[in-house]
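Quick board copy: two proteins, each given as sequence then tokens.
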Amino acid sequence: MRISLCLTVLALAAAARAQAATPYPSMAPVDRYMIADRKAEIALARTAAPPSISAEARVLVLGRRGYETAVKGSNGFVCLVARSWTGNFDDPEFWNPKIRAPNCFNPPAADSVLPRLLMRTEWALAGLSKARMIAMNAAIIAARHARAPEADSFSFMLSRQGYLGDQVGGPWLPHVMFFVPHGHAVAWGAGLEASPVEGQEGHPGAPTVLFIPVRRWSDGSPAPPT
């Protein structure tokens, strides 16, 4: 209980600071997060990975209550377009309705990491405040119900068509994200000078996400210099 309370207080304080400095202090109307054309959302989701992978992947699209399966797939990968609320709670763009982040999870990540994203989405669409999400997330961690990433969990984010935030103003760089248990960033040399691996530890109980930029977008075109 003490751990849960501490995590909640710290997260709420960080979220309050972010909210005071953001043009997106609360959730926008749900329609602004939706993509009206279902086929367009499927196509955008598939740009997350090379066609050799995404063409046979399961594809999810955002519905009024959460993500729904639009294409069943056959290779175990799962592609979708993530929205702003899947970011860190202290991200000033947590409620930015413009964010579109094509992402394609490999089978281990689809089993162990993706459920968190789907749950967060259901919370947002149910109208939960960020403060309520933080409290619920802390309770899950304190109760040790948070599942660690399976070995070899990663996802592709190779789309040229995404919008990852106002600071970036577009898709950032094509990259692969590896999901590892908390405390493992140092073993990857993440964030060190001249290291190709970006990322740092999140809060205890959450998976650590490591970003590795790669040379080409999913359509085969060259990436800009890192």
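And the next:
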Amino acid sequence: MSDLPDPGRRRWLGGLLPRATEAVARVVSEEVERRLPPRRRPPGAVGEALFLAGCTRCGDCVQACPHRAIFTLAAHVQPGAGTPVMVPDERPCHGCEGFPCAAACTPGVLEVPDGNTWKLGTFHVVTERCLPFRGPECGACGGLCPNDPPALTFRLGRPAIDPDRCVGCGLCKPACPVRPAALELTPL
């Protein structure tokens, strides 16, 4: 009688290790992401733990953005110094066709998204600051939403944002004449 387990049992045992490794990696990744500060990564970003592990800090995505909407984290910001981030309330994401930022990523931590949008958050109207809510007409942010149908519409002369359609690109905010702006980004 042989000391080796039968072939069926070896296959079963051999399949356990990859499944167990995958399960542990998933739990560790979820825990790491829960503890990391929230960051708005460029379109097509993989999960934060995988992003930090795989990003080479090459800057190709930063250079590929024609609107200069991608920044790199400063050297003192940990974890992730030198990695790309977006701040759509400072510099809007134009959601370029083909997502050149993601297409430029050779390490693969940015993947070209399916479709033509990538959610960065949701803007909302701060009614206490918004001119049409205080009396005068405005409409400066009207017509700027790239979504079809637009997330930002007007009801009775006042802006309203549908949070289900808003991707948080920030294209509406620079048009606001009020400071601080009446449009604020709510993180994901």
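Board note added afterward: The first helix runs from residue 7 to 35.
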